[in-house]
Specification:
Length: 574
C-alpha cells in the first residue's frame, strides 16, 4: 500500500494540524451567531453589513491571539501541550498557524454570504480547497514544510479573491445579470410576436425603465398606459427596458411583453444587440423613448422610428450630475442627438417641452404634442383627511427639490401645528431629506416618509390630501399633477417648464417661483386656511383633469403614426 507521507512525516503532520485546529477553534467561536443575526437582519429588510463587520473584527482578534500563542510562541506552548515530539515541527508553526488563521478569515466571509444565499463565495472556497489538494498531491515531496508553504500561499490567494468579491458585492449581481443577458441573445426565451393581422401593428418600445422599476415615474406611466390601450385596439406591444435587479427578466403585464436587460447604462448596449440578433424583422415600428440618454436607434433600425421626449434635460444634467458626466450627457442630447435623429418624428407632452426641443434643433422633421392622460374611473373625488394634509408624491431626486417643500413646511406648522406633510416615493435623495427633517427639528409624525406606494395607496393619498406640492426644478408635464386634480386636489407647483402647462394658475392650483420657500409656504397656508376657496379649487381641478384621458392620448398617438406612415408610403410610390 502506497502512503501519502512516510510514517514519521505523517506523525509530525498530525501534531502540527492539532496546533492549527486550536487556532481554527478560537477563530470560529463568533461564527456561531453570524448566520442567525444576518438572517434576522436580511429578513427585516435591513443591512447586515455591521453584523459582518463586528463578527469579522472578532474573528481577526481571535486569529491574532491564536497565531501568536500557537504559532510564534509555539516553541513553548505546543511541546507543553503535545509533548517533546512536537519540537521537530515548531519551526513550521508560525507559517502553518498563519495559514489556518487566514483560512478562518476566509471562512467568515463565506459564512456571511452563505447566510445571504450568495453561493459564489462558497464555490470560490471549494475551488481553492480543490486546488490545494492537487498541489499537495503533486508537490509535497514528502516534506511537511512544503505542505505548510502551499497551504499559506493558497489561503492568501483565496482570502484575496473572496475579499475582492466581498468589496464588489453590490456589483456581482449586475455582472451575473449581464452574463445572463448575453446568453439570452442566443437562447430562445423572448415572448413570441402575434401573427400579423391586417390592421394590427407589432410595436417595439425602447424605454429606460418599465412601470415596475424601483425608480419608475411619470415617463414609465405614460408609455405603459399608451401601450395598454394599443393592445386593447388589437396591436402587439413589447417594451425593452432596464432591470433594477428586483424584477423578472421577462414578464407580461396588462398583456404587454416586458423584456428587461441591463441596468442603468447597459440597457442601451443590450438594446442594440438584442435588436440586431433577436428583434430585427419581427416588428413593424420602433418607439424610441429618450430619458436623458438616447438609444440612437436610427443607427441600426431600418423600420419606421418615432421618438418620445418628455423634456429637455440640459439643466437637469448640470443640476444633478458631476460636471464631467454632465458635459458628456449634454453633448449626447444637445449635439449628437439632433444629428442622428434629424429625420425622425418626435412626440412630446407639453408646449414648453416642444419649445425647448426646437431651441436645440431636436425634432426638425416634426414634433407632435400628446399629453399625459389619467384614468378618470380610478382617480375620482374622495374624502379629505380630517387634519390639514400636505402631500408630495414622486421620485426623491435632487432636481425634484423636495427640500424646498420641507423648509417651507417648517413655516406652515408654525401656523397650523396639526398639519402633516406626507412624502411618498423613493430615490437617492431620501437619506438627505430625512436628515434635513431631523435637523429642522420637526416633531414625530409631522413629516411622514411613506416610501414607494402601491397604486391603490397612491389614489387614497391623492384623495385625502388638502393640497399636493410639486417644487420640481423641471418636468416634462407632471402626470401626478393631473392625477391629483382628478381626485379633487389642487396643486402648488414651481412655475417652470412643463408644470406651467399642467397647472392652471388660480384655477387648478398655484404656480410660484422656483425655489421660493416663503412663497410656497404662503400659498400652502392660504389654501389650508380658506375652506371655501379650497373647495372651489377642488372642483376646478377635477374639471381641468377631465380634459385628459389615456384613451384619447393613445388614439392620437396611433393616428399620428398612421398618418406619418401613410405619407411615407405615398412618397415611396411616387
Amino acid at each position: 500500500m502506497k502512503h501519502f507521507f512516510s510514517e514519521e512525516i505523517a506523525g509530525q503532520y498530525s501534531i502540527i494540524s492539532l496546533a492549527g485546529k486550536m487556532v481554527y477553534f478560537l477563530a470560529t467561536l463568533p461564527l456561531i451567531f453570524l448566520i442567525t443575526f444576518v438572517s434576522r437582519k436580511e429578513g427585516l429588510g435591513e443591512s447586515s453589513r455591521k453584523v459582518f463587520q463586528m463578527t469579522f473584527l472578532s474573528v481577526l482578534i481571535l486569529v491574532s491571539v491564536g497565531v501568536f500563542i500557537f504559532g510564534f510562541w509555539g516553541f513553548f506552548t505546543v511541546p507543553f501541550l503535545f509533548g517533546q515530539k512536537a519540537l521537530s515541527i515548531v519551526y513550521l508553526l508560525p507559517i502553518y498557524c498563519l495559514a489556518v488563521g487566514i483560512f478562518a478569515l476566509s471562512n467568515t466571509i463565506v459564512t456571511y454570504h452563505l447566510a445571504k444565499k450568495q453561493y459564489l463565495f462558497t464555490y470560490v472556497s471549494v475551488g481553492a480547497s480543490l486546488v490545494l489538494i492537487n498541489l499537495i498531491w503533486f508537490f509535497h515531496n514528502n516534506d511537511i514544510g512544503e505542505v505548510a508553504r502551499l497551504f499559506l500561499i493558497v489561503s492568501w490567494i483565496d482570502f484575496a479573491v473572496l475579499g475582492i468579491f466581498h468589496h464588489l458585492e453590490n456589483h456581482l449581481s449586475s455582472l451575473r445579470r449581464s452574463w445572463r443577458d448575453f446568453l439570452g441573445i442566443f437562447i430562445n426565451e423572448l415572448p413570441k410576436t402575434k401573427p400579423e393581422i391586417r390592421t394590427a401593428k407589432r410595436i417595439l418600445i425602447f424605454n429606460w425603465r418599465d412601470i415596475t422599476h424601483s425608480f419608475a415615474g411619470g415617463a414609465e406611466i405614460y408609455i405603459h398606459q399608451l401601450a395598454k390601450n394599443w393592445i386593447k385596439a388589437g396591436n402587439h406591444v413589447t417594451i425593452f427596458c432596464g432591470n433594477d435587479g428586483k424584477q423578472l427578466r421577462t414578464e407580461t403585464i396588462d398583456d404587454i411583453n416586458i423584456v428587461r436587460r441591463g441596468g442603468f447604462y447597459m440597457v442601451y448596449f443590450w438594446a442594440f444587440l438584442y435588436y440586431i440578433f433577436r428583434f430585427r424583422g419581427k416588428y413593424d415600428l420602433v418607439i424610441d423613448c429618450e430619458n436623458g440618454i438616447p438609444f440612437f436607434t436610427p443607427l441600426y433600425v431600418r423600420k419606421p422610428i418615432f421618438a418620445v421626449l418628455h423634456h429637455v434635460h440640459q439643466n437637469i444634467f448640470f443640476h444633478s450630475l458631476p460636471r464631467p458626466l454632465a458635459l458628456i450627457a449634454s453633448f449626447l442630447e444637445k449635439d449628437l442627438m439632433p444629428l442622428v435623429y434629424r429625420k425622425i418624428k418626435f412626440i412630446t407632452v407639453s408646449q414648453s417641452s416642444k419649445i425647448e426641443m426646437e431651441k436645440l434643433g431636436i425634432g426638425k422633421s416634426g414634433i407632435e404634442i400628446i399629453h399625459n392622460g389619467v384614468d378618470l374611473k380610478q382617480f375620482i373625488l374622495g374624502d379629505k383627511s380630517i387634519y390639514p394634509m400636505v402631500l408630495y408624491l414622486g421620485r426623491l431626486r435632487a432636481y425634484k427639490s423636495v427640500d424646498v417643500l420641507i423648509r417651507a413646511f417648517k413655516r406652515v406648522i408654525g401656523k397650523y401645528n396639526e398639519a402633516i406633510l406626507v412624502i411618498a416615493g423613493r430615490g437617492d435623495a431620501e437619506k438627505y431629506l430625512k436628515e434635513l427633517s431631523d435637523n429642522l427639528g420637526f416633531k414625530k409624525n409631522q413629516i411622514i416618509f411613506k416610501g414607494k406606494v402601491t397604486e391603490k395607496e397612491k389614489i387614497k393619498l391623492l384623495q385625502s390630501a388638502w393640497v399636493l406640492v410639486n417644487p420640481s426644478f423641471m418636468e416634462g408635464w407632471g402626470v401626478v399633477v393631473i392625477e391629483a386634480n382628478a381626485c379633487g386636489t389642487p396643486v402648488i407647483a414651481s412655475n417652470v417648464k412643463g408644470l406651467c402647462d399642467s397647472v392652471r394658475n388660480n384655477e387648478s392650483g398655484y404656480l410660484v417661483p422656483y425655489g421660493d420657500i416663503d412663497c410656497f409656504a404662503d400659498k400652502i397656508i392660504y389654501v389650508l386656511e380658506n375652506s371655501e376657496y379650497r373647495h372651489r379649487l377642488n372642483l376646478e381641478a377635477r374639471k381641468w383633469a377631465e380634459n385628459f384621458n389615456w384613451e384619447n392620448s393613445s388614439k392620437k398617438f396611433l393616428s399620428f403614426i398612421d398618418s406619418d406612415l401613410a405619407k411615407e408610403n405615398l412618397l415611396n410610390k411616387e
